[in-house]
Amino acid sequence: MTDLPRRVLAALGLPIVLVALWWVLSAHSSSFFWPPLSEIVAAFPRTWTADPIMHDVLPSLARLAIGYLIALVAGVALGTAIGSFRTLRALCEPTLEFFRAVPPPVLIPVIALFAGYTGWTAKVITIALGCVWPILLNTVEGVRSLDEVLRDTARSYRFGRTSTLLQVVLRGSSPRIAAGARQALSIGVILMVISELFGANRGLGAAIVQFQRSFAVPQMWTGIILLGLIGVALSGLFRLVEHQTLAWYRGLRQAERGA
Amino acid sequence: MTTVSTVTEPTLDRPARTRAPAGGRWREPLLGLLGLAIVVAVVEALPRLGVVNGRFLPPFSTMARALGSELATANFWTALGQTLGGWAAGLALAMIAGLVVGVIVGSVPFLRAVTASTVEFLRPIPSVALIPLVVLMYGSRPQSALVLVVYASFWQVLVQVLYGVADVDPVVRDTARSYRFSRWSIVRTVVWPTALPYVVTGFRLAAAVALILEITAELIIGVPGLGRSIGVAQSSGAVAQTYALVIVVGLIGVAVNASARAVERRVLRWHTSVRRDL
């Protein structure tokens, strides 16, 4: 098997070259904005010690998780209801189109009017409200484009309501739900960060902006890199979950394409 | 017909075509209008009945009046122009960069293999992570917004273009090669039509993302535009005006989505996913 080393080389080659380039080019950099990479790397363990991880990073991630899960549950539940009833769908569609089109960061000033913007609640609500639209609309689409034959088959076999819902409706629309959930995740990360930029706060986003305001540039870079790593890790985690739950769908697609 | 299977991927989040509605063709639009009217009525009633404090959620009529007086000010139109200008410039740059890089990287297998991991790594990096950097470099000048918009929408376009170029039917490409098509004519007559549905999907996604980042930059960094106006209105306690501007931004979003779909239908009118008679 000569294939594996070549693939590893292809996957790691360019990133290594890029990091090396960054390292070499910035080595003697005296630019204020682009400190040497060695300095950033050295600042990393000093900046992200146990205390900021406990009080900034983990709370941010917890808020993201809570808001995202609320959005997922609410979006799938509402989306299934709206998608299943034609009249309800026609009634809601333009309204949903409008709310979907409102850029989610705009929610922050509005929520700030109600709840102020210091506690957890306002931030979690922001994340949940921002994430819910792509999930909701994709669920509606998924439920609506279900195969009629599947539905009728389930009826002929006298599936109960619950098992039709779980086995046919939700299962059948899960590829679309996953597509919506993926969009929602990146919106959630954005909102996690910017919800902390309003008012005096703690959290990952707040910490990074604090470094920027105090002109601690290498520390700020460590924050940017940490955020990037979190983004990559979350999307990797999402893929893993998606890979597990949608295995049947990929098999189906492959079979259809092969035929 | 391999083209039939190719469109399922990029059109995942396009609304499926509706079957003919049961009660005449006006039923669904009318129901939709009714839905909007209900929302407006609820927003009007909640503060008037005292369910919600009118300081937080003014009645809809108050918002509409604030919107009306807002439309009469020159500041509003300047801000609107700044927002749309920044959005369009960033989107255009991202489209050009995404297309050029995508077609080149996508058509050379070596480049594709080498860059795949880097693209997968850089793409999920949230563009808002760059906010502190652009603030240091450009402050609240429009360049800040431009960097964020271009970074965020570039990946949307690039990834779709890469999918699209990879989707070219090998038989068609080999045929073109056997007929000694030049590199350029292969790109023009084989790669481009295959990739076009993906490009258009990328455009639609990028248009929405670009608007989000433009507004974010205005709201958070204070780049001139509607987002900043919202922030100013909110912090100065002009509640009705805040809602009015949020409504305007939402309408811009609706317009962006609708026009992106119109572009999609127009550019792809030859394509099986859009043609009705198939």
UniProtKB/TrEMBL annotation, chain A:
A single cellular component GO annotation: plasma membrane
Any one GO BP annotation for this protein: transmembrane transport
Cited InterPro entries: MetI-like, MetI-like_sf
Keyword Disulfide bond: no
Family membership noted in the UniProt record: Belongs to the binding-protein-dependent transport system permease family.
PANTHER family linked to this entry: ABC TRANSPORTER PERMEASE PROTEIN MJ0413-RELATED (PTHR30151:SF0), ALKANE SULFONATE ABC TRANSPORTER-RELATED, MEMBRANE SUBUNIT (PTHR30151)
Identification of the protein by name: Nitrate ABC transporter permease
Automatic annotation (TrEMBL), chain B:
ABC transmembrane type-1 domain: residues covered: 80-264
Residue ranges, annotated region (Disordered): 1-20
UniProt KW keywords: Cell membrane, Membrane, Transmembrane, Transmembrane helix, Transport
Pfam families hit by this protein: BPD_transp_1
Subcellular location: Cell membrane
Main location: membrane
Single biological process term from Gene Ontology: transmembrane transport
InterPro entries: MetI-like, MetI-like_sf
UniProt topology in membrane: Multi-pass membrane protein
Cellular component terms per the entry's GO annotation: plasma membrane
Domain of life: Bacteria
Signal peptide: none
Transmembrane segments: 30-51, 87-109, 121-139, 145-165, 242-260
PROSITE patterns: ABC_TM1
UniProt xrefs under SUPFAM superfamilies: MetI-like (SSF161098)
Family: Belongs to the binding-protein-dependent transport system permease family.
Protein name: Nitrate ABC transporter permease
Organism for this UniProt entry: Mangrovihabitans endophyticus
Gene: ssuC
